[in-house]
């Protein structure tokens, strides 16, 4: 057979009017595909002391975890051009020192169940910061979320059940200073009014 | 190789709607045409298309290696000097590629002749990998085609497998897809690739080319200010090199699909280089740079093609001192190459161009375009095929 053996038509079907619009992350689909248990119980701790008293990590490990979470918050945390926008969503914010505003980290996540190997690994492991969303009137009011907006649960619980992907490193977020630096050549060439497509615009920049 | 009429599937346009194929009709003209199909023998496919496709791809990679170590050749290929290292490094690092399409003139007899290599931004991917596959399935189901009908088309399967490999080769990065605004066809092609990437478990996002931003350190960003670290762009390298953000390329940590070294292949200067390295190869047409036309005196008719162009624009035929333009367009400022005339075969009223797809270095299927003119352009129609 020289053709694809099987194509899952259900997955190729597009709902009416939903095609070619921006779609949310494929995270849920990915987890389902992997077919493994995708949930994990975590604690959200707000300080080194909180970490020592409520998790299986010792003080040195907690201190290291805290520093890692802070660095991660610097790298991936939401960034705003002005203080009022940031405060409207997260309440308490700080000046990043590089021209924008970021919410204060509410805490960071530590897995509830750690075996000995985990504990050794976790001391040099990865810690995701979480933020408390506080825009009044929002359905996410008082929810804890990771930097990419994944909701962990309502603030103040002793532990949370999260999708394992919540523990993954988040993509870096930055402050965009300029847009529109690509596309000029296509735009110039599309003003050429020939071709046979009646709009005078090229149908495709591929070929 | 036969062109055979067939009844259209009843209500196929509803089926197109169901699967999100929104560009089957463009500017009031049919683009997808299922009133006929092409039939090949297995021998024609394997001997004349599949094997030469993989062989030619290997030859093209030889050209890349040769050009990248020679500054005079880099100039001939019109790669701007400030991007030489960017292109060279992507080759040295072995940056992986996703796909490409070789265009052939093939009549069913004799060797297929290479017209060009769409190695950077090939389109008509969805129509090939999925839609013509579904067309065959539907027609076999309704007994309009024999049960043993096959198709040279493992494109979707190979794309999904390739994305699996690419994720392994590009760990810890999310993939951004991009194309230009205002082109339904390009958006459709990119959506299809996103579907294939999602099937392979890759977290992916979309941003329009015109919306890409940069931060103070020169990192590229999407509209949510997320830093772009891995990007598929359905947008030509030769455009990006010459645009404002082009100066940031290579200075920021981005993996690209297609990789920068593809700029050497999607370039018509490839054709005279292939002829220099592999003179007389049965699948190549004699081709020449503008300053070597003295070597082309044996050929009474030459086709003049711009170094950079898309969709058959700015092609002319040269007979001695007589130049006849076959198509207009906005290309040609970087110069031209010349290829010995080898007209497309004519089936009925139409000229037929065969596209042969590769996923990485594996031949993966074919697509057929028909046009009333000798140069297939942006309004040429797409027809399905079978192997019987």
Automatic annotation (TrEMBL), chain B:
Its EC number is 6.3.1.-. One of its GO terms (molecular function) is ligase activity. Gene3D superfamilies: 3.30.1490.330. The keyword S-adenosyl-L-methionine does not apply. Residues 12-387 form the Glutathionylspermidine synthase pre-ATP-grasp-like domain. It comes from the Bacteria. Pfam families: GSP_synth. The keyword Transmembrane helix does not apply. Keywords: ATP-binding, Ligase, Magnesium, Metal-binding, Nucleotide-binding. It is an enzyme of class 6 (ligase). This is Glutathionylspermidine synthase family protein. It comes from Microbulbifer echini. The lineage of its organism: Bacteria, Pseudomonadati, Pseudomonadota, Gammaproteobacteria, Cellvibrionales.
């Amino acid at each position: 057979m020289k053709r694809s053996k099987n194509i899952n038509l259900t997955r190729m079907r597009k709902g009416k009017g939903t095609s070619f619009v921006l779609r949310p992350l494929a995270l849920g689909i990915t987890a389902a595909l992997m077919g493994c248990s995708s949930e994990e119980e975590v604690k959200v701790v707000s300080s080194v002391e909180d970490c020592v008293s409520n998790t299986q990590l010792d003080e040195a490990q907690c201190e290291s975890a805290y520093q890692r979470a802070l660095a991660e918050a610097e790298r991936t945390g939401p960034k705003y051009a002005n203080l009022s926008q940031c405060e409207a969503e997260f309440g308490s914010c700080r000046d990043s020192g590089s021209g924008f505003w970021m919410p204060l980290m509410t805490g960071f996540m530590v897995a509830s169940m750690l075996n000995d190997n985990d504990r050794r690994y976790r001391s040099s492991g990865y810690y995701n910061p979480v933020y408390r969303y506080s825009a009044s009137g929002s359905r996410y009011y008082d929810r804890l979320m990771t930097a990419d907006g994944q909701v962990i649960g309502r603030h103040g619980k002793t532990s949370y059940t999260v999708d394992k992907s919540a523990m993954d490193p988040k993509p870096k977020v930055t402050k965009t200073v300029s847009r529109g630096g690509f596309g000029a050549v296509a735009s110039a060439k599309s003003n050429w009014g020939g071709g046979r497509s009646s709009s005078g615009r090229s149908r495709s920049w591929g070929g | 190789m036969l062109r055979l009429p067939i009844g259209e599937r009843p209500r196929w346009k509803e089926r197109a709607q169901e699967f999100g194929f929104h560009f089957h009709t463009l500017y009031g003209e049919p683009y997808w045409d299922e009133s006929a199909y092409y039939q090949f023998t297995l021998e024609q496919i394997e001997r004349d298309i599949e094997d030469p496709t993989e062989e030619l791809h290997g030859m093209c990679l030889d050209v890349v290696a040769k050009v990248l170590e020679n500054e005079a050749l880099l100039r001939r290929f019109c790669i701007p000097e400030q991007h030489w290292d960017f292109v060279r490094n992507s080759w040295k690092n072995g940056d992986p590629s996703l796909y490409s399409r070789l265009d052939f003139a093939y009549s069913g007899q004799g060797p297929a002749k290479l017209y060009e290599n769409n190695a950077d931004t090939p389109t008509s991917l969805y129509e090939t990998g999925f839609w013509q596959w579904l067309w065959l399935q539907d027609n076999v189901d309704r007994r309009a085609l024999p049960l043993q009908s096959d198709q040279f088309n493992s494109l979707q399967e190979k794309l999904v497998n390739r994305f699996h490999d690419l994720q392994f080769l590009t760990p810890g990065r999310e993939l951004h897809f991009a194309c230009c605004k205002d082109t339904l066809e390009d958006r459709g092609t990119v959506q299809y690739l996103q579907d294939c990437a999602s099937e392979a478990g890759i977290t992916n996002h979309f941003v329009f080319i015109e919306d890409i931003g940069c931060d103070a350190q020169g990192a590229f960003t999407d509209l949510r200010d997320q830093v772009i670290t891995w990007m598929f762009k359905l947008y030509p390298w030769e455009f990006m090199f010459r645009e404002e953000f082009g100066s940031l390329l290579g200075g920021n940590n981005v993996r690209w699909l297609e990789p920068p070294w593809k700029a050497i292949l999607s370039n018509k200067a490839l054709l005279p280089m292939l002829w220099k390295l592999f003179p007389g190869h049965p699948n190549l047409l004699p081709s020449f740079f503008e300053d070597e036309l003295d070597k082309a005196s044996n050929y009474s008719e030459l086709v003049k093609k711009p170094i950079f162009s898309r969709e058959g624009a700015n092609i002319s035929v040269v007979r001695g001192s007589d130049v006849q333009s076959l198509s207009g367009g906005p290309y040609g400022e970087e110069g031209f190459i010349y290829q010995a005339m080898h007209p497309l075969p004519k089936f009925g009223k139409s000229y037929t161009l065969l596209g042969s797809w590769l996923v990485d270095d594996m031949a993966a299927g074919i697509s057929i375009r028909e046009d009333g003119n000798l140069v297939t352009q942006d309004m040429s129609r797409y027809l399905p095929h079978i192997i019987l």
